[in-house]
Amino acid sequence: MNVWPVFLREMMIFANRLKKPGYVMAMLVTPLLYLVTFGLGLGRQINMGESTYLIFIVPGICAMSTMTNSFTGIASSLAVGRLHYKSIEEMLVAPISYSSVALGEIAGGTFRGLFSSLFILLAALIMGAHLPLTISFYAAWILTSVMFAALGVVAGFKSKSHEDTSVFSSFIIMPMSFFCGTFFPVDKLPVVVQWFLQLLPLTHSVTCMRAGYQNQNVPIIPFAALTFFCLLSIWLAIVSIRQSLK
Amino acid sequence: MIKCRGLSRAFGKRTVVDKLDLAIESGEIFGLLGPNGAGKTTTVRMLTTLLHPTDGEAKVAGFDILRESLQVKRHIGYSPQEINLDRDLSGYQNLLLHGLFHRMPSAADRSRELLSWAGIESHAHEIVRHYSGGMQRRLQIARSVMHNPSILFLDEPTVGLDPQIRRTIWDLIRSLKDKGIGVLLTTHYIEEAEMLCSRVGIMNKGKLIACDTPENLKRITGAYIVEAQVNDSIDYRHFADKTDAYEFARTLAEGSVRIRESTLEDVFIHYAGERFQS
Hints:
The complex is a heterodimer. Helices cover about 75% and strands about 0% of the residues of chain A. Chain A is an all-alpha fold.
């Protein structure tokens, strides 16, 4: 396995991009807007019993931000590098196994996702929320980031044009942002919709991260489902690289 | 060094490389010459393991391109037609990463050495996006030889470059031969193949239509050409002997005849039955 240089390459590119203020703003602006609008604005009107809506929404927005940045960072970087600049060929023609390429890219996407959502947690702290204190929150957070980075590798290697990546974002990533329990509890929805939402990985991410954030017991089934989706995504990422050469 | 037997690649119903048989010895500069769309790049992409063949087999450095692709990759260097450097990284970072991909213990030292070889050491830490086309091409070739491959694939290494930079690249390629690196070069520039290659394979419509040294290929078709204007078209006659060419020219009307040495383009016309349209 030679995962390290693949990860290092992603980190070098990411570090150079971070020097551009516009890139950092684009990465943070949407989740911060959600946090301010729903957490502070609308949230003050919502009665959550002993807790506050801000405490409810922070893990959801953190999961959403992790998903978006892990997925988009890797999917667009790979699609542009593969279809436009051809820079991905350099890795594919090097003596590195496809698994190493996949794992290195996933590690890069994971770092991007965790890095950006860390700012969301810090922003929430400033607004009056607390930092997560349980291991289960961090475990679910990392699994979420790995899973969506792996799906980013799949989208990056499956895309036949730049538009394909945004289609994937618009029809899969964006709907998950709104329906998987990010802004409202899933158990308020009709039962059929709840069943359907169990098929979407972000539902389990939000459930696990919210339980961890609110110091509740680890939800076993959602955690197992999250782990399953994560392993499935990694396998799909490796397969999609191999298939791109056929 | 490279052996192909019946190597083929189709995209849907379109066959781009058709039953290619080829043997290239180590240490030679072998040119694959042909017009755009002849199948040269697809051949190189299969031999570099970037594309799976739909039929046939090939061995590079003694290893099967499908079953032993990792071993093949350890022995080859590849510089594709398009610049595929990481444009958001510096020249030094591009080379360093290549060294790490190949697990080179002295990747940093070797990167500095190659930046100097390519004549871009003063721009080592600039972002590649800001390099000129010639600098990018030199960096890309430097990167392809960084891990001391025994076989180097150069796909159209001088396409789009001005004549002065093209000569610099030719000098770089010649210096590779001196180091004992075997080179498979694809080009649609006739003079490039004639100047650099010890042997040339001519491809057209996915097939290898001729393969030999440039001198032998020209000898086979006739080393001298008489071009004669006949009505609105030009008639070409090949002669092995210069005297025969002059004697034939004397029989034609004055002013419409030209005698010249044959080129690989004439060889292409001879075998393909059409002009070389690049």
